[in-house]
Amino acid sequence: MHDGDMTTALMEWYARARRDLPWRRTHDPYAIWVSETMLQQTRVDTAIPYFLRFMERFPHIRSLAHAHEDDVLALWAGLGYYARARALHRAAQYVSAQHQGVVPADYAQFAALPGVGAYTAGAVMSIAYGLPYAAIDANVLRVCARIHAIEDDITRTKTKQYIAQLQRALLPPHDAGTFNQAMMELGALICTARSPQCGACPVRSYCRAHAHGRTGDIPYKKAKKNPRSERRCAIVCIREDDGRILMRQRGASGLLSRMWELPHVSLEHEEEPMPWSIDGAINPQWQEHVGIARLTHGTALAMFVHRFTHRIWQMDVVVRHAVVHRDAPSPYAWVDEQQRASLAVAALFDRIVASVRADHRV
Ligand code: SF4
């Protein structure tokens, strides 16, 4: 095999088969950076509408830098992994202040920004500026492990470093961005995790896993630990007078920080006394705290399940209608539909509220 031949075959295939994606129609480093940040842990189809909305609202770095964090999170709501959005926002503020609002065309400077890891740095530097850096995401790791029949665990740093070295050797010096995108596209469209379509693969004749019938067991990955399940109970209080729903904003650190949510408690590490129970009984102290004078009828909804990387929330939901005698104290607020659309509501709670509104026609 000659590496140059494989690179040529790959690039020719990419020129024919590449998907027309919004971030591929631009060379704007900021837009490419936004797209690469969104695409971490997110499917292309899901990311497209988020990317378009984000770029319309924050078309350049300075507009993002000047935005309020809550507005950035609101546009990110539903994409998950909100730390990405916060880091992007902080990085935009830094670039705006220290680099005159221009993404630095220097790998080390760019990689030093909040939230920019080796993958993002390689992708943005090569795609936007044509610099000769490899961009190694999960797709590239898989494709490369198969082409070279690498049997080591691809989640290990050593294996990743080895693959990075192999990728660097293949980079065409003047078109690293296209090469990187071609590798990723091959992994996304042809050399998929479960059913690689070797018959349609442009690099089939260079692929050792294919030659040795090993595509089913390469790449090798150590099994992940199962995420921990936790049973929780959320309460949906609906105001009798205007249909607004009681929500609250989470604290500044930890999981889903500063996102909006429905009040909920863990049923495993019970707070004493519990503010409400799974059968809808509400503790009078909590009721008084949030300014509810009286509760009328209530119902229980089906359980909602949400998976995070390391945990699963199984959320029982209780719905109660409430008569209110004073406004709710911070971080609580009574939220109508228009406000909910502009707040950064965590996806699970957005789903629950939408379901309650549909069921109760409120
Ligand atoms: S021949 Fe098959 S396993 Fe090898 S790179 Fe192509 S699709 Fe992947």
Properties at a glance:
single chain; 362 residues; alpha+beta; Endonuclease III, domain 1; Nucleoside Triphosphate Pyrophosphohydrolase; 2 domains; four-stranded mixed beta sheet; three-stranded antiparallel beta sheet; 15 helices; elongated; binds iron/sulfur cluster
Strand % is 15-25%
Question: In angstroms, what is the radius of gyration?
Answer: 25 Å
At the first level of CATH, the class of the largest domain is Mainly Alpha
Query: Mean pLDDT, as a whole number?
Result: 91
- Summed up, the helix count is 15
Q: Residue ranges: pLDDT <50 for 5 or more in a row?
A: none
Number of domains: 2
The strand line-up of the biggest sheet is: 4-1-6-5
Quote the CATH topology of the largest domain.
Endonuclease III, domain 1
Distance between the termini: 66 Å
SSE-based structural type: alpha+beta
Extended strand count:
7
Silhouette: elongated
Q: In this structure, how is the largest beta sheet organized?
A: 4 strands, mixed
Q: Kindly state the percentage of residues in helix.
A: 40-55%
Q: What this model shows, in words?
A:
By secondary structure, the chain is an alpha+beta fold. It folds into 2 domains: 209 residues, Endonuclease III, domain 1; 133 residues, Alpha-Beta Complex (Nucleoside Triphosphate Pyrophosphohydrolase), CATH 3.90.79.10. It is 43% helix and 15% strand. It contains 15 helices and 7 strands. Strand 5 and strand 6 form a beta hairpin. It binds iron/sulfur cluster (SF4).
